[in-house]
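dude i think i finally got it to work??
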Amino acid sequence: LPKKEFQALDLFDYIYAVLHSPSYREKYKEFLKIDFPRVPYPKPETFWQLVSLGGKLRSLHLLEDTSLDERIIDIKGEGELLIKNSLNKKDFSIEDEKVELRLNDEVSVVNIPLVAWEFYIGGYQPAQKWLKDRVGRVLNRADMKHYNRIINALCKTDLIMKKIDEVL
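look at this
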């Protein structure tokens, strides 16, 4: 049975879900450029479904979700994880919906899902930006674990956004 009352966080999660709906963004694209978003008034069952999905998104985006520790990416090659390359198109290749990114002449990051690599948030691509912001640095294990969590969050966000559209 759906709850009769909701908390402030439930409302936040509902709005968060709506604003992550690809169909909502497309439908109100022009309006969103000039004004505040309009949030539709939902039916109770739709509200609670979107609260749940929005809560999952919030947990992912805060990197709190424990499922983010699941290993997706790998390192190929021997040597230090020094990002020497400028990370342009010549530094990565795509095969079977996976990206291989050459950090330097010896080491690559492999198995980056293409959906995460190409994912946009607010005009930039976090999977690419995170690495580009670290060009010239040597990455350590903690850095790679964090990057893996980001990649996981982007992949899971894409799936949840599709589920949100199904509910709306």
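The beta strands are 74-76, 81-82, 92-95, 98-102, 108-113, 138-139.
im so relieved honestly
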